[in-house]
Amino acid sequence: MAKLKPWYDVVELREDLRENRPLDASEFAVHLDQIRDGRAGKDYTDPQRFFDRTYVTGSLLDLASQVVRRLSGVQVETSAVFNMSTQFGGGKSHSLTALYHLARNGASANKWKGVESILLRANVKAVPEAAVAVFMGKEFDSLNGRGGAGEPRRFTPWGEIAWQLGGAESFAAVEKHEKEFIEPKGDAIRAMLPKDRPALILMDEIISYASTYRAKGYGDRLYNFLDCLAETARGEKNVAVVVSIPASDLEYTPADAADEARFKKMLDRLGKAIMMSADTEIGEIIRRRLFESSGSQDEARKTAAAYAEWAIEHAQELTGVDAESVQNRFLSAYPFHPSVLSVFERKWASLPRFQRTRGVLRLLALWVAHNHQDEHRKATREPLLTLGLAPLNNPVFRAALFEQLGSDALEVPVTTDILGKSDAHALRLDKEAADGVKKAQLHRKVATTIFFESNGGMSQGKTDASVPEIRTATFGPDANMADLEGVLEGLTATCYYLNADKNRYRFGLTPNLNQILVSRRGAVQPKSVDERVRQLTQKLFDKHTGDASKFVDRKYWPARSNDVPNRAALTLVVLGLDTVAGDKKTADLMEAIVRDCGSSGRTFKSALLFAAPDAADAARTAVRDALAWEDIDDDEDTKKRLDDGQRRLLQRNLEAAKRAADEALFRAYRHVFLLGKDNALRGLDLGQITSSSAGSITELILRELEKNDEITAHISPARLVKCWPSSLVEWPTKGARDAFYSSPQLSRLLNPDAIKRTVADGVSQGHLGYATKDPSGRLKLQRFQESMSETEVEISDDVFVLKAADAVKLKEPPRLESLTVRPERPTIKPGEQVSFTCSANDQYGQPYPLTQAAWTATGGAITAEGAYTAGPVCGLHTVRAEAGGQTALAEVRIAASEKKPGGGAEPGEPKPGEPEPGKQTIRWRGAVPPQKWMNFYTKVLARFINSPDLKLEVSFEIPLDRNQAQAKADETRTGLKELGLDDNVSQT
């Protein structure tokens, strides 16, 4: 949105207002008799000047066009008698003055500003010149009479009217009635009307006359005369009677009210009631009276459009927003906000001393003059003059304001709570507020708006300001309405004379509960605050708002490491307000708790979550306020002095203070600490949290940690397999559970028993096996690939889970898997014997019963029992055992040694089969699974690869389909040749 110009850069004030010399209220009054006899100022006696400064409102246009039409002799769609009712702006006397100048000047008025529209509405070509009579009830004195030199003395309203209409000739028609003070009837009235021209009779403030002379019966005679005058005018073609009944400053007696009702009923019966000035035209009326120029209409329209667009967008939150007319309302009121003008009509009009025209014009003149001064223009660049900009700090303005209210009793509330003193509550709140609120002076504006909308709480049924009214009058396109709630809370909690009831606000005369709170707050002891803080904090953390938080253990205010148990379950450690996040003392305490549990090291470090508070001042203050409100509520003597509204407010304040204390503590615990994957404590800042973020602090913490995968409610079997320790085949169920609370590499299980569901699902889905061990330590598969419920899962060191592959092995019955021949590498001499044995193992590595093995050997002979006799050929030979389709080999070295004469070996010569002196031989024989061959080379053989004495013999067998065997044998021979090895591959 384009930047809107401030109002003072668009409109031009009258010179006296620019110089801060606003006129007195009397300058805005129009006195019809003074206009008639030329005593009024030029603004009113000079007809053209008067119309230049007069805005022809819809109601004035309607009245004037009908009067002009009637004076022109047109009786269709018009009336001869008008009963004027008034509301603020373009008052009755002003309208009567306009009619007076039109009728007196006739066709000369055609060229005046605004008259063309009157002629167009009247459908006549020119204003007819007419005889005009003016009767002012406040001016005409029936005891002294009226009449100058050479004029008859006139003591009656009808005598005065006749004289003004036609001089001596008209007066003669009612002269007898004048002398005897008897009201004339139709014939006499028709006789006093001029015959050569139309007649306009203007009567103002008639109740003032009736009230003054009620004891003499003159009021009744005026009523009778007016009744006959109206009836007679209705029968004439070019006579109009315009009457204004009430007296603007008159305090009515019951008799006055009765007379007003009687006159009104009669005039409404004989004529037409007409309401002067519509609220959409008030702005133009005021502009004519207060401003030399309305300035750029483009800027005014731009501002009105921006505010209208904003108002329509937020219509549900505002009041009185009609999409079709709202832009015109802003434009019509410019440079004022419509609420400034409408509040006087909506709220203030019923005040006994309120002057709808002159008094308010005086206020607005002071208003714009004050805000137009340089120092105030620098402080604000508002596009519109709003209620919030009323200069309540100006003593002259306040005096004029209180005059309209009829009392200055609100001087103290205004200067204490809003403006007028340097430490006024609204001013102080703005100074302490966030930048946006401070710059907008939002506390001052809202408080001032409440003052105007609540009518000061003065004797009008405690009129108040609703939240929609406050929003409408205070905010605009560039304002943040979300700030209002906090501003109202601040004002309500601080101001001494502001009363709030069910989201409605008013300023009153009696000090409110805030003053009592100030004294009670100071009496609250720090020990009581600390005790309540602990109670509330524990309540906030213990609150169960969901299934998740019930699984978390809470430990409060630990001072030593053994204050927190070492358990395989999530534990939320809540630190006190004196243990603030970021302090070294706090960090040291958490480190000590994570590292140890008393004198022992802590196993389940990852199970710990720490909640640490921010700075504690706000929380302690809120708790102190709650305790102070409780103290007031418990004081029966104080409560007796409160009225019903204050007692209700006390309960609301008490509840609000309790909520504020809870909220302050909730917001304080925004820091969470836990063990990171690097095995060091790390912090998580939850940000600007509020109680609306979650049902409890614990729930909020768990939710954030789940979002970051630090906590999980369930772990899938597949994920458990990924976490499997590489050193384990079977994993105790207790160890599997505990791993999620001891290793920060894993997400913490919200519920320790969730591992049961994981195991049960894994067994049911075939991802895991469930096993125990027999007394000999051998694994026994209990469940695999069958339905299992979590209630059947036992968490123990003696119950195990297996990966699927290992479970499959346990599920098969024992079968012969491998053979082992012993000894593996004996060394003997030719002709000597060695006995070989053969043992068997099953697929689980357990001994397998073997009845008989078939023996074969090279380099010697071997019996069926495994007895080998070495032959004469020295060298390395093979002994083979076969059983159940399995084969095992052993090596036998036949070594011959040279003998010295006399036999025996040379001194120091090793015996056959023994290594050379100072050396040892290591041997290994076993089956290597194909998938581990590369690892076998890397981890076992690579370290000996540079030794020239390393001997490696490979033997492999693989059964193949007969159709594939030849091709595979050929490929094998090719590979062996490429490696330079013996390519003798047998096929059987």
TrEMBL record:
Domain Ig-like per the UniProt entry, residue ranges: 814-859
Bias kind Basic and acidic residues: ranges: 908-917, 968-980
Sequence segments annotated as region (Disordered): 897-925, 962-988
InterPro entries: DUF499, Ig-like_dom
The protein's name: DUF499 domain-containing protein
Organism: Gemmata algarum
